[in-house]
Amino acid sequence: MLGDEVIKLFLSTKGENEDEVSKELVDFHHYITESNENGLPEECDERLRRLHESIQEIKTSTSVEVEYMKMEERERLVKEEARKYGLQEGEERLANLLMNLSKQNRQEDSNRVLKDLEYRKKLYEEFGL
Predict the structure, then answer these.
(1) Which of 1, 58, 79, 127 has a CA between 20 and 30 Å from the CA of residue 113?
(2) In sequence order, which residues have a C-beta less than 8 Å from that of residue 102 and are 6 or more positions away?
(3) CA 87, CA 19: separation in Å to the nearest integer?
(4) 10-residue block means of pLDDT along the chain (129 residues)?
């Protein structure tokens, strides 16, 4: 137990003790490792066969493929927008810091913040930025 009252079972597909676990579990591990029709044993558990059939349906479904591609595109756009926003916000924050330093005639500090990230963080706090 990991303190959350849920029993978690960690399995390795690289295990070497097949005789110590059920055949169904061994078949499942082989299927995960092979991840194709070759990984499906002739005499496998019915649950594994249904899982395999479901996976094959999903793989051949054009609507799932289209939805997956849309999801990837949305994720790419979100990441790109977040990156742009982060750069703009960071640039604006640095510009505000440099303007504050300039108003106080702190030229040495202005030069230092461009090279020293820790010092820049300290001054962001000082100016409440």
Answers:
(1) 79
(2) 110
(3) 56
(4) 72 79 82 70 82 82 78 78 73 86 86 88 91
